[in-house]
Structures are given as C-alpha cells and as structure tokens.
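Forum > Structural Biology > Help requests

Title: Can anyone predict the 3D structure of RWD domain containing 4?

Hi all, first post here. I have the sequence for RWD domain containing 4 but no way to get a structure on my laptop. I'd be grateful if someone could post the structure tokens.
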Amino acid sequence: MTANEDQEMELEALRSIYEGDEGFKEVSPVSFQFRIGNLEDIKAFILDITWPETYPETAPEISLDAFFNNRISAETKQMILSKLEEQVEANLGTAMMYTLFEWAKDNQEALMENHKPVVTAVALTSSSDVTTTSSTTKKREKKEQLTKAQKRRIINRTDNKGELPRGWNWVDVIKQLSKTGGKDND
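Reply #1:
Sure, ran it for you. Structure tokens for RWD domain containing 4 below:
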C-alpha cells in the first residue's frame, strides 16, 4: 500500500473510533489534536500531531505548543515529547495514532509526575498609574445615558411620528404672548 492509502485507512479508523469524543479534534485530514485528561485536570495536556506526506513510514510531527499547554513547564514538555518519540520509533512503519493516544492516556500520571504549573510573571505597576489610565478610559467610553423616566418623558411628549406637538414648551408660548400681547379687553 502507498502512504496515502495507509493515511486514508487510518483517518477513517480514527474518525470511527473517536466520533463524539470531546478530547479528539481533526484539525485537517493530516493534523489532529488529542486532549489527554479532563479539562478540569491540572495534569491534562493536548497533543498536536501532524502527518508528513510519507507517514507512516516516517514519524509524525508531535508538538505541545497548544495554548492549553502554556501552564506546563518546558522540562515537562520535553520529557513528554521524548517518551512519545520512543513510542513512535517502536511503531514506525505502522498506523500508530491510536496507539500513541492510548499510550499517552494510560501513562498520563507518569508523564506528568514532575509537573509543576508555570506561573506567568505579571508586571507590577503603581496604583496611581492604574487609576489615571482607568479614569481616562472611563471618560472616553462614557456616553449619555438616559434613565427610564427620562425616556418615558421624551416618548410621552412626542406624537406617533416622533415629533413634538405644537406648544409643548409652555415657556416659549408665554414668551411669545408677552411679546405680542394678550387679548385686549374692550
């Protein structure tokens, strides 16, 4: 069989085995992600595996560069990759994806035994810097907000076309009357 036929057969097998499995994701016909462990598990990790054109005769490309794995130290990632490379060498020339995934699931505790979550460094800033930047952003984002009562008053003043009725502002009416004068009492 050619490499492409082997790949097609293995792809079909993977689809049928992992159909409905939330831990398996087919990124493309030659690229896969498999989550080892539950989402809540601090020792969970995601394997990114990509097939080269000549797979299974050549080793697949295995990576732990997914964002999900950012909390895993570089030493732990390197140890997991070296153990997986040993499994790849043992299965070279055969369809090995299922074997790799299941081996990683079975050996998750051993692979992550030295795992210490990586804490990302956060740059500290003074509180005065934070307040000045937050107050300027608040000023920019601030839009005129009307209360419900103000909105009701506006709606009550307008007719069904959205126009204000004639004489709605009584102050203007009184100003006009004072200028023109009222009815003469003859």
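The chain has a mean pLDDT of 76. The domain at 3-112 is CATH 3.10.110.10 (Ubiquitin Conjugating Enzyme).
Shout if anything looks off.
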